[in-house]
């Protein structure tokens, strides 16, 4: 048999060069890792860090994690806290520090990266797979959320693992990989189950392409375990969350018991074109970046011939990259349309776009590498991809990531010196969003209830006193002078000070002790 010739333009970049670039892109995360927690979405990071801190102090109880914004009740389930438990183990060994939360996130990101590379190799030529992995490492949204205290890449590691093992289970008719898909899928289902849909749709298409009763049984195993895990955990979470006291007298209070209405949003939100523009703009700027979008569009023209340029020993899936990406795209469209409010409010709900976007960018960049002319020894496609990596690497700084809220940090530090440990606090700051805002309470390391300053009334405080509330903390940012404490709290004033950072005044702090001066709660 004649030896098959490989088109020289399909050869992948040298392994050593690729590895150096990949490690350099991974290292982009490290410079911002030693400072205080930052925005965007420091809110969720503070919750994640506090759950780990509570595990460190009181023992790891995966079934009853604690947050700061439910008074002394504390317990609520937002996700399966495996990420937080691993952080707590590191706290035990090295001391409690958000650095270890970041390292856990990074470890799951590395796992997700390895799974993505393995998946890409089974869908496209080796060079396209390597370029896809570099794109994944460079995307701005991935750079940020892979090195903050957050659960997103715990889920994505499970989703990518589910896709990788699922492809191999169906392509190679392997029960071992079916079991791997079941375990990886269970992790994703426990932490944030809906993200699995991104992998389910293309795997369903692959099952049709490779149909046999054996493959149907393998797919059933791979799916049944995650579904069972999801249903069991949601039942437990709803039962635990239903025990939160009835605090409907507090502004915007609700119980986190299967609140689909809150996650989905309203028809009016979907009918506002500006809301769709917000999400589309994030995909353009934070997920793929403009040049990445151009590469992804070029992927539609890639022939992706089976066998050409494949890694040795890798068996390409019969589905191909473009049908896989089309099915993933449909699943992502459903993800946005169904969980519209979450996608609108939180940019991290676009994290599931990263893997399909990386595969598309890698495929399109490989096509550019093949088809564009050379400039001397340099392929123009390689130069264009290098420009994409450089722009994506710089994008987090241009997008304003890692903004530090010094007003809340400095105010919380001072308030914690006044409010004793165990004191329950009604906390109000610049843009408090009740009932789940940890941004002041978590930084104080105190429990309590967040409330807007103008919604603090004597009646509400009197009712919270029955649950142990004693302290009221109000913070004003000098850039937002409209925030002020209610006048009726005057007799309970314990401290009124400027908030300082680096020797400069940036805000104002009021601390009230409701046991002080015979305060009886008169007024409004």
UniProtKB/TrEMBL annotation:
Keywords of this entry: Membrane, Transmembrane, Transmembrane helix
InterPro entries: RgtA/B/C-like
Pfam name, any one: PMT_2
Claim: Transmembrane is one of the keywords in the record: yes
Superkingdom classification of source: Bacteria
Keyword Transmembrane helix among UniProt keywords: yes
Domain Glycosyltransferase RgtA/B/C/D-like: 81-233
Segments passing through the bilayer: 99-117, 153-171, 183-207, 213-233, 287-304, 324-344, 351-369, 375-395
The name this protein goes by in its record: Glycosyltransferase RgtA/B/C/D-like domain-containing protein
Originating organism: Eiseniibacteriota bacterium
